[in-house]
Design a protein that fits this description.
The complex is a heterodimer. Helix content of chain A is 0%, strand content 52%. By secondary structure, chain A is an all-beta fold. In chain A, the strands form three sheets. In chain A, strands 2, 5, 6, 10, 11 and 12 form a six-stranded mixed beta sheet that branches. The mean pLDDT of chain A is 94. Chain B is 0% helix and 49% strand. The chains are: A mainly beta, B mainly beta. The interface between A and B is medium-sized, with 27 and 27 residues.
Chain lengths: 116, 115
């Protein structure tokens, strides 16, 4: 079974600074996707960034980028120029890419606090 | 399109009662998913549909749980004889379903409290 581990229950960053959230996963599959989702307080979960396992190039979306290390099974999220609106729970998620297997397996989340 | 909607947003019920939740996905999304999220945890997969067909169910989905998507549009999740351990946020998500990496769009969730 696939597992996703987020070892940082809480993180704090000052506005305009950079923070990195860690995620490791375990799988025997070679084809899969990795995601970071953001869940603001009392709001819907939204996708932040996605990485295809077959791509060596790290995904980037504006201020968000990932460091994908396939051999180490590591998938960290870097948030640059942090903003107050980045405060939320961040979930790392794994998705196997085989046939109809479409469920997401989530980690336990990291609560990010952004301070002035 | 207003996104994925769920009804009700909150439900308080007494142990032993039955409850039913509804999810309306984004129109033309073929896949619909149900997840359960307890406090301090990430969402856990319950089941998913491709159109009206239920393709996968988690072991978390006991016999007391049943989900339907009768016409491939909205879906319902029913919990019979609720237990206190069923208290959680129930999340619905939908996706186009064309590729393995397609984005799942989540609804606001239904928070169930069993007293």
């Amino acid at each position: 079974a696939q597992t996703v581990t987020q070892s940082q229950p809480e993180m704090s960053v000052q506005e305009a600074e950079t923070v990195t959230l860690s995620c490791t996963y375990d799988t025997s599959e070679s084809d899969y996707y990795l995601f970071w989702y953001k869940q603001p307080p009392s709001r819907q979960m939204i996708l932040v960034i996605r990485q295809e396992a077959y791509k060596q190039q790290n995904a980037t979306e504006n201020r968000f980028s990932v460091n994908f290390q396939k051999a180490a099974k590591s998938f960290s999220l870097k948030i640059s120029d942090s903003q107050l609106g980045d405060a939320a729970m961040y979930f790392c998620a794994y998705r196997r890419d085989t046939g109809t297997a479409s469920k997401l397996t989530f980690g336990t989340g990291t609560r990010l606090q952004v301070t002035l | 399109d207003t996104g994925v909607s769920q009804d009700p947003r909150h439900k308080i019920t007494k142990r032993g009662q039955n409850v039913t939740f509804r999810c309306d996905p984004i129109s033309e999304h073929n896949r619909l998913y149900w997840y359960r999220q307890t406090l301090g945890q990430g969402p856990e997969f319950l089941t998913y549909f491709q159109n009206e067909a239920q393709l996968e169910k988690s072991r978390l989905l006991s016999d007391r749980f049943s989900a339907e998507r009768p016409k491939g549009s909205f879906s319902t999740l029913e919990i019979q004889r609720t237990e206190q351990g069923d208290s959680a946020m129930y999340l619905c998500a939908s996706s186009v379903g064309q590729t393995g990496g397609d984005e799942q769009y989540f609804g606001p969730g239904t928070r169930l409290t069993v007293t």
